[in-house]
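Sharing a chain and its predicted structure for anyone who wants a worked example. Both blocks are below, sequence first, tokens second.
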Amino acid sequence: MLNLIDRVLSRREGKPIARGELIEACRPESLPGTDTAAKRFEWNLNFWIEEGLWVEDDSGIHMPSDVESGQALSGRVLSLIIKNASETDITQGSRTEPLLRNICCLLAQDRYTFSGGEVLKSGAAGNCAEAINSRLPSSMSINVSNEASTLLEYGDFLGFLEPIEDSLIVDPTRAVESVLGKIFLGNKDLPAKEFLVSLGRYLPILDGGIYREVVESLMLDKGWTKPQFPQISSSLSHALFRLNLGSKITLEQRSDDVNSISLVLPKEKRTASIIKYREA
């Protein structure tokens, strides 16, 4: 639904469109002629206008003036929800805070990564709700019927989960790749520890990020064990390994470097003290 609305607005190149006209433009592809579907569409439209993804004023609905040309919708949404939550306590709130909490929780759990060997599923027989509810306080629990499936859909859309057949695994490769240009701005390489700090600043859902630290403190109370530095999570290890394999970055180890990080991979442990950016 987000993709369709955004595509309609993008094609208008900043020219506003009336709300009713936008709904009609989107109806053929995604909106059956039912009251339930119409209400769901309007709820989503209103929600993301309030978040700042699109603008509605007296002239109609249109794209914000500061949208970067060529920036993917997923990257815009991710940047937006991180920005909007920057001044809030993500243990509170009911807008994007639950999504951020739950993605943090999944990323911290090694069992649902490629190394861990388990996959995530939604639906009545799925395990996504259990993955969250077993590691976070009961006040933050999610239901099986719709919240678990929504979490997996957004996790995939934002680049933190990857589909494998009819399941998903925790893999933030796409999300990490989307911020590499910002992390390495003005630099060709960075010490691994400095790279992690910068990554956590742009994506506070990942290792060392402020959201992640808050959620991990809650998970510790539920029996979860935090990896000790220099070891990083399996999810981030897998992402860095894939980016290295795909020639987006180079992981380099210099001898006896005390600032090295340790990656956890399925068949090996690997260290890196320098991370180099390989621009396209």
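Comments welcome. The CA atoms of residues 52 and 107 lie 26 Å apart.
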